[in-house]
Every structure is written in C-alpha cells, then in structure tokens.
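tool=predict chain=A
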Amino acid sequence: MKEYSKNTHIDIGRKRVYFLSDRSFYIDGSLFYTPLSRSDWREFAEDAGDGMVLVRTRSIIIESKKHNILVDCGIGSSGEAMHHKLKDDNVLIDGMRALGFEPSDIDMVMLTHLHYDHCGFAIDDDGNPAFENAHYYVQRQEWDDATNINDLTETSYLPETYSGLMKARVLKLVNGDYVPALGIRLWLTGGHSAGHQTVLVKSKGQGLLFTGDIVPTRYHLRGDIHCAFDLFPLSVLTMKKQIIKLAKKHKWYLAFPHDPDVPYIKL
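tool=predict ok
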C-alpha cells in the first residue's frame, strides 16, 4: 500500500482531483475503531487523551473541462451543535479559495450521505445553498431517512444543515447507481446508512474512489474494524471487501473522508 500525505491534488486521466479539509473533531476511539479496545487501537492511532482520537473531515473537488464537482462539504459549525470538541485547523471554504475555487465555481455537489460531518457547508447561515450554482446529488433513500429521523439516527442527522436544499429546488434525488457526468459514478453502497453512496472518478483508464464512511480511514480497510455508527455493519464488511477487490484489480486510488494523516492511498 502506497500512502500519499502531502499532495494537494492528483490527475486522474483528464480530470484533476483536489484534496481539502474542514475542521477536525475528537471522538471516542473505541467507537470510531469498533470493536477494538483502547489498548488495541493505540497501536496505530494517536490517543488525544481520555480515549479520544482526532478525526479529519475531508472533501475532494473534481475538476474537468465541463465541471467543478465538490464531494462532501465538511462539518461547518454543526459539530458545535452536536457537542463535539472541534479543532480550528482548517475551514473548507478557505481551503477551496486557496486552491483557486470560489463557491460559485462549483456546479455539482455530491453528498455521500447527510450526516452532519459531511454536509456542514451545504447551506449558508441564511438557509440558502452555499454553492449557489450547483445541484446537490443525494440518494433518495438517504433523503427519506434524513427527513424521518428516529431514536437510532437522531445523533447523526442535523436537519438544519440540509433542509433548505429541497426548498431551493437544487436537490437531485437519485435511486441507486447513477452517472451525473462523464467519468463520474455515484455508487449506492448502503452499510453506514441505507442510502450511503461512494463517488468514483474515471478517466483514460485511471480511477479514484472516494470511499465515504464505508472506509473512513486507511485503518478501516481491516476487516475487523468498523464504526459503531454503522447502521448495517455486515453490509459495510461486504462492501469493503468488494471495494478492495475492485481497487486492486483496476488500480484505483482510494480517498478517505476521515483519515487523520493520509487523504488517499493506492493498494
């Protein structure tokens, strides 16, 4: 496995993929690296104190001749609403501008799912789409679940981070696998949530898969590790095996949303 920790972008054929981060937060390591004990996960992850680990919130921008596509949009201020200890090390919009992108340059937003740490900047403080020229692509199943929260999911969804999308008529609800643009595939995986999707970028025989929370970090490639927040852990395991198999076969890069140090790898 080859790890890439310093590159700000990679070329996938004729497309360029940029890596950027939003604010990091801290979470119980035994929940993030389930079912490992603290002594076990400390063999590879840094203990930030009191059994907590640092979790990044990473996104990618896919740049092609026709589109600028943002995949996931950080935690924003929603982490405070969910009582997380946040680290002000990055801000998504600032990171985009540092790479030469304004929010108005984005014409598509792909959300792997609607948990608060993946759609924090979906709308602005006034409840309007933060990326005013973009359509937002979400699985219909995910939208249904996010707008019908139950006791099991109430700690993961924060409606104020996405509810304005439907009113603004920028929401594109898809059913299953979908190709919104040439060389871009939304892949319904389920697992972490019933409507979770990954995003595959392909061009000129090369590929990169943004894994979403099926594989949130490189450590979660291990079959014995998943997140306590996975609603369907057996489905996560099955999909993880399929992703690894396909990534090896087609020599895809894998990009992670939460790895503390490494935004992408090649198996």
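Helices lie at 29-32, 38-41, 78-81, 92-98, 140-146, 164-167, 233-250. DSSP finds seven helices and 15 strands in the chain.
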